[in-house]
Amino acid sequence: MRIVDVENLWKVYNRRKEALRGISFHVESGEIFALLGPNGAGKTTTVKILSCISKPTSGKVEVMGYSVPDQCSKVRERVGVVPQEFQGFSDLTVEENIKYFVKLYRGEESQVEELMKTLDLLEYRKTRFRNLSGGYKRRVAIACSLAGDPKLLFMDEPTVGLDPRSRRDVWNLITEVKRRGISVLLTTHYLDEAQKLSDRIGIIFNGKIVRLSTPGELMEEFRKQSLEEAYLALMESLGDV
Ligand SMILES: Nc1ncnc2c1ncn2[C@@H]1O[C@H](COP(=O)(O)OP(=O)(O)OP(=O)(O)O)[C@@H](O)[C@H]1O
Ligand SMILES: [Mg+2]
């Protein structure tokens, strides 16, 4: 089953800037799909449209069988989002922030405790959001995105700014999320991360999808040992040097 289905999606900002120029791709239920591409390629724009934060200009977008933007209220209830710039409530504590999202999604009160445990946040439960380090703010963002038991998670650069250990923790968490049957669409600039985590990748370049494949297929195509090398070879072939 296709949990995300996108056909010929366009996004034009301010009637001038063509951020997405007719992209098509899908995400199968249960898989981890990574959107890759240089700065400004259109990754966040895509994630924002799929998670109903921004509207498409044209094209077909279906998330969990619901049409975007027409059925966005259904979509919002069922997906979790880790935005590129997560802004928690800075004066509220970790626990209060998570509680807010659990209540918003009408989850059980016990979920607050569970999420703090999963994300290793118990020690910081009484700390105000603004006093957390960048890595712990990310953890809170991920905890909040899991409130309400979503079946699909959008993560925009989930590990940016994390120290190597915390990055591994988030990788394990994403793997665990997949094990629970949750599909994940993530964006990242870390190609080792994409290689390790994703079942399939889509590469966006200047608002167009230039590759849809598995990490292994791309590495084979360019005869490289790592996704990073294969990606760089692809970028070079596209004239981005
Ligand atoms: N609200 C907006 N108004 C006008 N242009 C925008 C807006 N948001 C994004 N853009 C432009 O659309 C293009 C795609 O931006 P987007 O944020 O989707 O890129 P990205 O692939 O997420 O990049 P990054 O890797 O840097 O996060 C860029 O040229 C950006 O400047
Ligand atoms: Mg982005």
From TrEMBL:
It comes from the Archaea. Belongs to the ABC transporter superfamily. It comes from Metallosphaera prunae. GO terms for cellular component: plasma membrane. Gene3D superfamilies: P-loop containing nucleotide triphosphate hydrolases. It is found in: Cell membrane. The keyword Mitochondrion does not apply. This is ABC transporter ATP-binding protein. Keywords: ATP-binding, Cell membrane, Membrane, Nucleotide-binding, Translocase, Transport. Pfam families: ABC_tran. InterPro entries: AAA+_ATPase, ABC_transporter-like_ATP-bd, ABC_transporter_ATP-binding, P-loop_NTPase. One of its GO terms (molecular function) is ATP hydrolysis activity. The lineage of its organism: Archaea, Thermoproteota, Thermoprotei, Sulfolobales, Sulfolobaceae. SMART domains: AAA. The keyword Membrane applies. Residues 4-231 form the ABC transporter domain. Coiled coil: none annotated.
